[in-house]
């Protein structure tokens, strides 16, 4: 692997989608709110390496891959391929880029005409780019079929006559047809049985060595990533939160999200499996309205409290989760207590009932004991909900508990193994004793 200039350089790449605005938005003429699928991604991909891109479903991996290849137009940012800005390519330069960079999808046939023979599927890029004579193209298709482990005489067959693994080999042959330098592999083995996965991954590895290929491997499967990649970038809600050499990332994950992701890999023993269910709790926030500051803070088990707050992480996390629910108005106030004893939504709660209303609500919403001072603050906030004063409740909690994680966006610094997390960039870890690995 060369450590020279990167083959692909991605800077602050953004891809927003304005499609699918809700009907309610349109009816009320509200301003369109885009899905921020890729929201400021910077990455370098070096010649001959395999860079893994990993993250939960919907975090923007495929959109990032397709935007890098200019299969989707970026909203903002810059991609350079071999030193050239991809957005500015046109004519023969764009055509050259289109042949030097390819993509392999999870199932290459889902979007292809099932009436096309395998030969014509693989030959199509050669036809489009006008490479060679008809006979030369036919010969090239035979070579490619053999190179990916299929018999050359199968070129007149149809996709449905092949197994999943064979079809993926055909997808790879098609991607190789124009002798590319760079291939985006988008979940290339997710649809395959485990035994077939290994064969396809080995084939990709052999081809990389033989043709000096550079790969961006998109996968949510951490064992595939670990097995195949040289470096890994971890993506969360449209952003990269950590990048590092594969061993460093797996042995010493720094970002709480990376740690949670690695912890969520199924384990062999039952005890471990039980533990795993606890990690990565909470819903992924909407990419239309991502949290301020660090996007992972709403689920982070290490969210940083204000200075000198006398709370352990569990209690602080519980209060932060309550705060988020208050801010999102995501607490049902219609029937609080046994048999809907309290209902602030029909004219508020009488003054004398407020302490009991607060007590009932706190028992429902917080399963952690708090020191008396914090009990008081939380109670004051919940008392505001007796009159549906959501904003006042949120303000009371924010004044007492605002975290640097929500105020400031952590940035990915330079270096071999950067991480975008205030636990590192601000130099101190307030939970170092409870989380010795940080
Ligand atoms: N054409 C589109 N129009 C609107 N939203 C889109 C479009 N394509 C993707 N999205 C949204 O962008 C976000 C990122 O999607 P993307 O497919 O890139 O994620 P992913 O990490 O590759 O997920 P998966 O592993 O499930 O494919 C999602 O919220 C998705 O719904």
UniProtKB/TrEMBL annotation:
InterPro entries: AAA+_ATPase, ABC_transp_ATP-bind, ABC_transporter-like_ATP-bd, ABC_transporter-like_CS, Oligopep_ABC_C, P-loop_NTPase. The keyword Repeat does not apply. Residues 264-299 are annotated as: Disordered. It holds the Pfam family ABC_tran. One of its GO terms (molecular function) is ATP binding. Residues 8-262 form the ABC transporter domain. SUPFAM superfamilies: P-loop containing nucleoside triphosphate hydrolases. It comes from the Archaea. Belongs to the ABC transporter superfamily. This is Peptide ABC transporter ATP-binding protein. It comes from Natronorubrum daqingense.
